[in-house]
Amino acid sequence: MADNTLESLFSRLGRFPDVESANLQAWDATDRLLLDTAVELRAAGGLPPGGRLAIVGDRYGALTLGALAQGAAGPGPVRVHQDLITGERALRNNAAALGVDGGFEQLPLGAGLLSGAGLVLLQLPRSLAELEEIADAIARHAAPDVVLLAGGRVKHMSLGMNAVLERHFGWVQPQHARQKSRVLLARGPRPADGPPPFPVTEANSELGLTVCARGAVFAGTGLDIGTRFLLEFLPRMPAARHAVDLGCGTGILAAMYARSNPGSRVTATDQSAAAVDSARATAEANGLTAQITVLQDDAMGLLPAGDADLILLNPPFHAGAAVHAGAGVKLIEAAGRVLAPGGELWTVFNSHLHYQPALQRLIGPTREVGRNPKFTVTASIRKSAEV
Ligand SMILES: C[S@@+](CC[C@H](N)C(=O)[O-])C[C@H]1O[C@@H](n2cnc3c(N)ncnc32)[C@H](O)[C@@H]1O
């Protein structure tokens, strides 16, 4: 495909419903390099004939829609896994905007996605644990002659990534870098014996809680230091009819709150599939499934306005690889919608992030309830009616 055709397709991609801003774009040079490398390999006879294409980690659809535009999808629909519900929705939005009707299937990481795959394109994840889970799944389920092309921005890649791939593939070869991106090519999958390694389960003795984590979830089975600080204020939080752990990760806040407030109904919600799987497993492991509902959603979009009287939030400070306060402000704005009048948002953040003006404006009167050398905890009360 001519360079400018793919460029013009990419230029029409949006990130919505993910945070959009002038310095954030919906594709990167790694998408381009992965697609070009696949075409070159196919032309050189380096791909198994008749193998299906699977894609893992497509951010907003550049890989899926690019492969379809190149006619490089192979037999059957392109099967694609994206951890974030915002990425899944963005792919569908972008397909509709480009007039692409079908041609791809969005699936969880596992056999349905990968069985019979002869080529896998992977946007390398940030964490080695997430890569471990993905590499294990590919080696377990894809065709024995599968070729994995795993690409990333050079500044985010580490030798640890090669080591993870070498545990699951007999042959791993870094390719030449181009425009600050690089592809690792892997062949010869070595399917692991025994059950899949994720979710990992660990007893946290400090909390007296069993924490379960899939590879992609924030903090793994660990306790984030901001979350630990917010938990110090658990005894001072109101007893809610309906409390929400917004951006729940492994669901530690939901589980700890549910345990100390047995009369409360709790929703744990996150945009990440790995997070909601983990939170569900954490609730199960601690006997809290009757009290905790787990929901994959973008910023509580599925919850009605005024539905909650308490929201707990340790906000994200990343939007993809970029540090961006917009992701946190989006969740504060969502909390303003979902809290009933008089309901409270309890949040913890790095003190230098100065979220108070946004909390004051989007929720209502905000008081500082705690501060340590690094973090601030605030409680904001949802103001009554709009004036
Ligand atoms: C800093 S982590 C906190 C995780 C967990 N609450 C804890 O304390 O360990 C922020 C979480 O927010 C989630 N998140 C980010 N943007 C979101 C959105 N738009 N909707 C739902 N969850 C989101 C991330 O996936 C991540 O799990």
What does this structure look like?
With 387 residues, the chain is an alpha/beta fold. The protein folds into two domains: 3-189, Rossmann fold, CATH 3.40.50; 200-381, Vaccinia Virus protein VP39 (Rossmann fold). The protein has twelve helices and 18 strands. It has helices spanning 3-11, 29-43, 62-70, 85-97, 111-114, 128-141, 159-168, 225-231, 252-260, 273-285, 326-338, 356-362, and strands at residues 52-56, 78-81, 104-106, 117-123, 147-153, 169-174, 181-189, 200-204, 209-213, 242-246, 265-270, 292-296, 308-313, 318-319, 322-323, 339-350, 366-371, 375-381. Strands 3-2-1-4-5-7-6 form a seven-stranded mixed beta sheet. A seven-stranded mixed beta sheet has the order 12-11-10-13-16-18-17. It has a two-stranded antiparallel sheet with strand order 8-9. Helix 3 links the parallel strand 1 (52-56) and strand 2 (78-81). The longest helix is centred in the N-terminal third of the chain and has 15 residues, at 29-43. The model has no long low-confidence stretch (mean pLDDT 94). S-adenosylmethionine binds next to helix 9 and helix 11. Residues 218-219, 224, 227, 247-249, 252-253, 270-272, 275, 298-299, 314, 316, 327, 330-331 line the site of S-adenosylmethionine.
